Amino acid sequence: MPIEEITSPSLSPRCMRCVLDRYLDACPPGTAWDARADYQRSVLRTVAERSIDMTAPEISHELNALVRDTFGIERDFTDIKHHFNQLVLGLEEKIARRIADAAGPLAMAVRCALAGNFIDFGPTGDVSEEKLLQLVDDAGHMELDERALADLEARIASAHRIAYLTDNCGEVVLDKLLITQIARTNPEASVTAIVRGGPAGNDATIEDATEVGLTDVTTVIDNGSDVAGTCPGRVNDQTKAALRDSDLVISKGLANYETLSGRGRNIYFLFLCKCSLYVDVFDVPLHTGMVVRGA
User: Fold this and answer.
1) Strands, sheet with 161-165, edge to edge from the N-terminal-most edge strand
2) Domain count, the chain
């Protein structure tokens, strides 16, 4: 399968099908058939008219708004985010010791941060805590592209300004540990962590960054957008400046990959392959950790 299927600026056929599968049946129980049919026509129209020049996170944002405007419902992730933030905070001291004791602390911190990318309610609507804890426990054995990892480590060691794009709640605790290790590896580098500008599923916001103490270890800004991912045309000027002025961008998660791939070789994408499309494109098992340099 060509990699263009996930790096194209337009929605790929498989992403389009996945989006439709998620939203066509998003009606509340008991919705009358005519109201359901009207809603489904609106979903199909939205995807048909906008998918040419929109990524999957942007289309999902439009369809979330459609569900909210049609039925007056929107999933509130406040309690879920707090739960996972506290869950991973409870592991922080143990993971910090593991990083400090590792033969390669920076590589270990990268692996732990990748394990946290499992916390994503988008693909399935749920997250297995048991699987998450297993991934975190096994992070030291996570197989990565060693050449890509070494390249990232070299770029971190020589960087002056780093922009770090966060992704999910809970995961942001492990981002904090990676950013802390980056500072130890290269004390001369300034790191700006960038979170979402408003509620975007279970993605981390300023409130989450504050809750887990990320704001205590580095500069944190929000991107001014409530779309999952980092859409260059939708983020605020502060984020645009941070990305423009950084000689290294570390981007966490699939949504950031979908919205930023092909936009520069100074971007290093860190994510788990969490759906069949990425499994096929990269020819790896499900939940494989990826370090991918931008193009």
Assistant:
1) 219-222, 190-195, 161-165, 248-252, 267-272, 289-293
2) 2
